[in-house]
Amino acid sequence: MSDTPVKQQSTAAFYGQSVASFAIAMAATSIGIYQLRTDAWVRAFLAIAVLYLVTSAFTLAKVIRDRQEAGQIVSRVDQARLEKLLAEYDPFEKV
Fold it and tell me: How many percent of the chain have pLDDT more than 70?
């Protein structure tokens, strides 16, 4: 392979913004559930539902990332095979 793709990295600012955004969203949701004027079991149910939603979102993001990385590896292998075939092919070779 002639070109090696550059691995994309997130900047520190983007990482920090993502962590802060997640923390603020979780805090706001937790405060909102705590301040509800309802029975404790309803608040507990909503809190567990939020935690389940968060873990599901992390799992989905990981699965999507893993599938994308696997697709990149397969396409790189296919590209290497094609380059090898093209390098070995001589159009002026006598049969």
Answer: 89
